[in-house]
Design brief:
The chain is an alpha/beta fold. The protein is 47% helix and 11% strand. The chain contains 16 helices and 9 strands. The strands form 2 sheets. The protein has a 7-stranded parallel β-sheet with strand order 1-4-5-6-7-8-9. Strands 2-3 form a two-stranded antiparallel ribbon. Helix 8 packs across helix 9 and helix 15 crosses helix 16. The longest helix is centred in the middle third of the chain and has 25 residues. The protein is globular, with a radius of gyration of 19 Å.
């Protein structure tokens, strides 16, 4: 299907664009009253994420209501461990919780490499439905969590500021850590390939907890597995044309190494200086990196910050975004100011 607006894909591939494309991480979510209404109808976050028609509905909402240049499928990075045999719950005010954890080699026997079509078919169905609903207006983005980030949740059992249980295992049982990371990696490769076949035009890897690792640990326990995923996707004749974005929050020390991966776009958080990142990551498209808290400011300040960001990135090889997901209490009118400013100042 030919896209009416393919700015994100052209920018990702390094082709010239007439203006900077823009979308937001977590754009399909609680900032929109329309999302909250669908979420209430679904009854729970997990019910919403696992009902393809509802997931597709909220995926398309930001395209209609905010004017973003891409839709990103409404799902969760933790669907992969659930598909591997480790179910989770989404607890209000607490976030994701795993009733059981995986912390020993013996625990690995309870898991399996996920079968994307069988174990994650509801996400693939949501992608197919969304693709039809979009009808070529904008690209549809898929995503997955990077293996180390998924490892953190599977071993810790919940969110954490330090993920000290997960990190402890890297020191005390590295053989177990590598075995689990490989299972996650194999599951993620199959999942992302299936997403592309179901209609995803670009896929993003979220390494949300990259920043808790030392540079040495990141080179051992995260980067090799992300490399496997990128290489496997690019080597697949059916899906290898699809751009890949790697976003490793907090891993400022790994920017140069990430830039050498077989990916097309490198996501930056707001702590990563733009000029320095351009120098460290030549020849790649960069995505980001406005501080999400800027959107709490007055519209005039938001516009000024957007202008400054766009000037620093330059007019090409940039996909405008925040440096992390939009916060749920952000005024949607301020989100529109951000999006409209990107379009105005980069045209």
């Amino acid at each position: 299907m030919k896209l009416t607006n393919d700015l994100v894909l052209r920018a990702a591939r390094g082709e010239d664009v007439e203006r900077t494309p823009v979308w937001l991480m977590r754009q399909a979510g609680r900032i929109l009253a329309e999302y909250r209404a669908v979420r209430e109808k679904a009854g729970s976050f997990i019910k919403l994420a696992t009902t393809p028609e509802l997931a597709a509905e909220v995926t398309v909402q930001p395209v209609d209501l905010l004017g973003v240049d891409a839709a990103i499928i409404f799902s969760d990075i933790l669907v992969v461990p659930e598909a591997m045999g480790l179910p989770y719950e989404m607890v209000e005010q607490r976030g994701p919780v795993f009733p059981q954890t995986v912390r020993t080699t013996a625990d690995l026997s309870r898991l399996h490499v996920a079968d994307a079509e069988q174990d994650l078919g509801y996400v693939l169905d949501a992608l197919r439905i969304t693709k039809q609903m979009l009808n070529g207006r904008v690209p549809l983005l898929g995503f997955a969590g990077a293996p180390f980030t998924i490892f953190c949740y599977m071993t810790e059992g919940k969110g954490s500021k330090t993920f000290s249980i997960a990190k402890k295992l890297l020191y005390t049982d590295p053989a177990f850590a590598h075995a689990l990371l490989q299972q996650i990696t194999d599951s993620t490769i199959a999942y992302l390939k299936a997403q592309v076949r179901a209609g995803a035009d670009l896929v993003q890897l979220f390494d949300s907890w990259a920043g808790i690792l030392s540079p040495e640990q990141y080179n051992v326990f995260s980067l090799p597995y992300i490399r496997q995923i990128c290489d496997a996707l690019k080597a697949d004749a059916e899906v290898g044309h699809t751009p890949i974005t790697v976003f490793a929050k907090g891993a400022f020390f790994a920017r140069e190494a990430i830039g050498q991966l077989n990916c097309d776009v490198v996501g930056l958080d707001w702590n990563m200086a733009i000029a320095e990142s351009r120098a460290l990551i030549p020849g790649k498209t960069l995505q980001g990196n406005l501080d999400p808290c800027v959107l709490y400011a007055e519209p005039s300040q938001i516009r000024a910050e957007v202008r400054q960001m766009l000037t620093a990135f330059g007019p090409q090889r940039h996909i405008a975004n925040l440096g992390h997901g939009v916060y749920p209490d952000t005024n949607p009118d301020h989100v529109r100011v951000f999006i409209d400013a990107v379009k105005e100042f980069s045209a």
